[in-house]
């Protein structure tokens, strides 16, 4: 297992990886001993570009641990475009399982690859911010960060 830390506008971020892909990206309070790899370096570069406002889509192999259903939800989350939001019901419809709204919410909450698998883009059906493992303040910041004028991305 490999790991690396970056400083972000939201505090330290830990990047974890196996030989096969990124297994976790999470907000931490204190960086610990790191054992970086080429893959964690690649993820760090992309995350820093995201925070700088020059990257809107990640290109990283993922190796998150989860159930088949969770992986289905996480794959669909990756289809939510930068700068947009959707509801848990939207994700349930997209995976052709409209009755699974609560299960989608649970899978969203268990997403181990924050930011890259953009669970922060899922909001309540009434437009309100709902839970985020990193905290609602971080979710609000990420959504605001993605709402900046697209002209800055050129």
Automatic annotation (TrEMBL):
UniProt enzyme class: transferase
Catalytic activity line of the entry: a 6-O-methyl-2'-deoxyguanosine in DNA + L-cysteinyl-[protein] = S-methyl-L-cysteinyl-[protein] + a 2'-deoxyguanosine in DNA; a 4-O-methyl-thymidine in DNA + L-cysteinyl-[protein] = a thymidine in DNA + S-methyl-L-cysteinyl-[protein]
Localization per record: Cytoplasm
EC number: 2.1.1.63
InterPro entries given in the database record: MethylDNA_cys_MeTrfase_AS (IPR001497), MethylDNA_cys_MeTrfase_DNA-bd (IPR014048), MethylDNA_cys_MeTrfase_DNAb (IPR036217), MethylG_MeTrfase_N (IPR008332), MGMT (IPR023546), MGMT_N_sf (IPR036631), WH-like_DNA-bd_sf (IPR036388)
Pfam families (alphabetical): DNA_binding_1, Methyltransf_1N
Keywords in alphabetical order: Cytoplasm, DNA damage, DNA repair, Methyltransferase, Transferase
Active site: 119 (nucleophile)
Coiled coil (UniProt feature): none
MF-aspect GO terms: methylated-DNA-[protein]-cysteine S-methyltransferase activity
The Methylguanine DNA methyltransferase ribonuclease-like domain, residue ranges: 2-63
Gene3D superfamilies linked: Methylated DNA-protein cysteine methyltransferase domain, Winged helix-like DNA-binding domain superfamily/Winged helix DNA-binding domain
GO CC annotation: cytoplasm
Entries under NCBIfam families matching the protein: ogt
Note: This enzyme catalyzes only one turnover and therefore is not strictly catalytic. According to one definition, an enzyme is a biocatalyst that acts repeatedly and over many reaction cycles.
Protein name per its UniProtKB record: Methylated-DNA--protein-cysteine methyltransferase
Annotated organism of origin: Rheinheimera lutimaris
Taxon lineage: Bacteria, Pseudomonadati, Pseudomonadota, Gammaproteobacteria, Chromatiales
């Amino acid at each position: 297992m490999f790991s690396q830390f970056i400083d972000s506008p939201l505090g330290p971020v830990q990047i974890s990886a196996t030989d096969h892909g990124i297994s976790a990206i999470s907000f931490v309070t204190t960086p610990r001993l790191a054992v970086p790899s080429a893959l964690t370096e690649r993820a760090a570069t992309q995350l820093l570009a995201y925070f700088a406002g020059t990257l809107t889509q990640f290109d990283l192999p993922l190796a998150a641990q989860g159930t088949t259903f969770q992986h289905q939800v996480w794959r669909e989350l990756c289809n939510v475009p930068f700068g947009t939001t959707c509801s848990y019901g939207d994700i349930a419809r997209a995976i052709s399982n409209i009755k699974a709204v609560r299960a989608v919410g649970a899978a969203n909450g268990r997403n181990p690859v924050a930011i890259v698998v953009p669970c922060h883009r899922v909001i309540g059906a009434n437009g309100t911010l709902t839970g985020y493992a990193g905290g609602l303040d971080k979710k609000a910041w990420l959504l605001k960060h993605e709402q900046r004028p697209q002209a800055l991305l050129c």
